[in-house]
Write a structure and sequence with these properties.
The structure holds two protein chains of two kinds. The model of chain A has no long low-confidence stretch (mean pLDDT 92). The N and C termini of chain A lie far apart (41 Å). Chain A has a two-stranded antiparallel sheet. In chain A, 73% of the residues lie in helices and 3% in strands. Chain A is mainly alpha-helical. By secondary structure, chain B is mainly alpha-helical. Helix content of chain B is 72%, strand content 4%. Chain B has 16 helices and four strands. In chain B, the strands form two sheets. In chain B, strands 1-4 form a two-stranded antiparallel sheet. Chain B is globular and about 70 Å long. Classes of the chains: A mainly alpha, B mainly alpha. The interface between A and B is large, with 42 and 41 residues.
Chain lengths: 289, 358
Amino acid sequence: MTEIFDTILQGVLLGGLYALFAAGLALIFGVMRLVNLAHGDLIVLAAYLILLLANALHLGVILGFLLALPLMFAAGYLLQAGLLNRVVGDDILAPLLTTFGLSIILQNAMLTGFSADSRRLTTDGIETASLPLFNGVAIGIMPLLTFLAAVGVIIALNQLFYRTALGRAFRAVSDDPVTARLMGIDDRQLFAIAMGIALAVCTVAALFFGLRANFDPTIGPGRLIFAFEAVIIGGLGSLWGTLAGGIILGVAQTIGASINPEWQLLAGHLAFLVVLATAPRGLFPRAVD
Amino acid sequence: MAMTNPAAPRFAVRTRTRASTIAAIGSAALILVLAALPLFAGRSVTQNLFFILTMLSLAQFWNLLAGYSGLISVGQQAFVGLGAYLLFAWTILGGVDPVLAIVLSGLVAALIALPTSFLVFRLKGAYFAVGTWVVAEVFRLVLAQVKILGGGTGTALPKEVTNDSALVAWIAQATGVRAAVARGMVDYWLALILAIGAIALVYGLLRSRRGLALAAIRDNEAASGSVGVDAVAMKRLVYVVSALGAGMTGALIYLDKARISPDAAFSLIDWTAFVFFIVIIGGIATIEGPIVGVLVFWLIQDELSSFGSVYLMLLGALAIVIMLFFPKGLWGTLADRFDFHLFPIRRRLEFTDRDGEL
């Protein structure tokens, strides 16, 4: 019994990480209907950036992360303003192809720059610390912090969307870009800010991911798929739904892995397909499309 | 009988153009040359052409899906890999002749695509794209669990399958070459038949009533429904036909390679990214585009693939530049400017005299 409880608890906490992966993807889709196929690679890029700042400048992981945040925001802003704003619109081929090309460029640039060796972010032992609960069930400090970070990011994004002028502008552009422009909103500028915020969220995801597991330049697409599955399971347009989607994906994966370690990924994908078959709009849908 | 004014102009709807008539004659001559090629050209020529022809088949089927039907898939490696694994299953486990096994593998891949379509069609637009990718991952992970076909590390085709098949033995006897050489010739001819078949199938489909229905769906899905086009059924047909094509091509590619592993057979880069690139650079939603694209791709690959990751970065960047500045690709841009179509599918209204002549 405790074993089952432990498996589910670890799965829920893993879901926090997937919600962090998914939040940026959901944000971009919500504001500009863009599915960014390079999303996973941008998370990996952020992880390398933290590693680079932490090691090369001897800043440590936390300072490295704090410095990486504004840098990734700027990278997102420039990426959107310089490239992706040219392809967002009704046609879905151009944005898909452009972000797919970007994904291949990023993966191979990172392979060239950082080699194929797997790397990891390290601190002074916090990543192995754990809180004992009862009956030998323990909860890792890092997974717990990851989960709390996911909740924190979602609260912050919801506050931004529903309590600020910027958020109001985001919602206006999302609902009706033409009318929003008539009201004096510069939608292209907003898209650039949204991409900047999304990449800042990617940096948070990268911090916790890099402390939890090894990463190398080729793992981006896998992270994109987890983010995508969490978004679809949760239902489009709802950030809390994304957290629920991440948790369902995480629990399915840990249950699969507890039966046979090779089934971890397969179990997650099957949970996604079951939700798709039974509730195609996700479990907590808000948006119409 | 209704009154007709003899002076009134008459009309005819035509798809054929003078260029297309010349192209048809030229294609027939080219096919004859290509078919006779293994008898006098070296092994390296047929190997290069095998690569070009199989990639061309994949590109035609992906173009049918993405270009003509708006179903942008980044998961066609699902059916390439499935076809490849089915070929190994039919030949190793079932003892079926490899040529028959290619056809059977394609048919089973199409059969599996039918229920799959009910799942992925629940996702729209860009989400459909990522959904097809998840399906490919599921197939890869499932086949990595099939221990009898090598599991995660893969397996090889035994020599009895590759060199001793009926067709290879017959060719070897007829031409007096070694079995290994005859095998290369057979694979090449099969690739040629598959590529011609792919073009003929896609072209035939687009010239038929179903092609008109597809164009109507692409232009306005809601309006096409009002004139009786069942958009979902049409898209499902295209999805299943594309899976059939990708499955047969995958089976042939891995019959030639004779060695399979889940990571290679379900490779996103090899079977989707390169195909994407071929269609975009040549011109999406044209029959000629993939032909031009695959030749350009082969030239670039031949020159630069030894540079590894820099080569892939260059391909990615080139695809983005083409998308931004020449979204119709090389062929599409030229065809628009000069109104030149080798495989015309557009119906044109033309004035004729009383006998229906131009």
